[in-house]
Amino acid sequence: MVSKKTTPLNQFVVLPKVELHRHLEGSLRLTTMLDIAQKHGVTVPVGMFNLSGLVQVQDQDPMTFSNFLEKFKTLRLFYKSPDVIHRVTREAVEDAANDNIRYLELRFTPVALSRAEGFPLHDVMDWVITSAQDAAKKSRIKVGLIASVNRHESSELAEQVAWLAAERIQDGLVGMDLAGNEAEFKSDSFKGIFKEAKQAGLHVTIHAGEWGPAENVRNAIEDLGAERIGHGVRVMEDEKVVALAKERNIAFEVCVTSNYQSGVVKALTEHPLPDMLAAGLNVTINTDDPSVSRITLSHEYQHVCEELNVSIDKLQQSVEHAAQASFLNDVEKAKLAALLKKEMTF
To answer: Which of 74, 161, 177, 314 maximizes the CB count within 10 A of its CB?
Structure first.
């Protein structure tokens, strides 16, 4: 029996990286949650291990969409004060920097962050912006923010978030995202909102083709103006949609571990990432919710190389593609590309 070749995790840690798909709400440290629980009277099991079972996917868990989403029900209990939101934002940026991510696009859901204590949406957005900027400066990482709205929420709420986001473009809020349960909720009512957001100068990324069919990817591109697709792994079910994505040079924000843990694929080794690359799609590699999945982006790179047999050259190309697919302006993209080229020593 031939043993599988392994590469030490540290060799992926030192690789300069770009991440385009990371949710703030899925990035909370366990130690921080325990501290918040103590200070704010959040009722959670005592001890790191017990809390981990509630907010992180465990090896013995069923790898299903419902189990994955269940973790967020507990996570939503922790947004108890402005200081908490400042802290979790700062720490998310610090964790990315510690993993040698050179540019991070961090998406957050203002409605989710505001709902626990009824905070005004504009305040929540400003808290995240301020903390992300401060942490980025201190950690020497560049950060762009993406405001996310959910399909199951009202279009009126989404419109409010879009207008608030557009007012904050100069503060580093670079894009809008539509997320949530695509299997049960359509995106039709959000078309006008995303069209106006794009006209206002916001970039657009849409979760599609994860729990819904390839047709949802087509819809995201043609009807919602998506420049990037969150996940999008089911695009491979329709060659016409693959052709459309290639024609428009749509980037796919692929999250391998998340797709396995949420039941999109039955095993890591069955993930369609290699097929997407072979088809010539513009693929980037991301964590989705690093705390929930108990991974870093370096872990994700390691899985892609070892479980999916993606070469180091292809991995480095995906980093370069992520830089080009970022929502930075052309000048900033060129700076990032030069930095990555200088640091690519793998």
So the answer is: 177
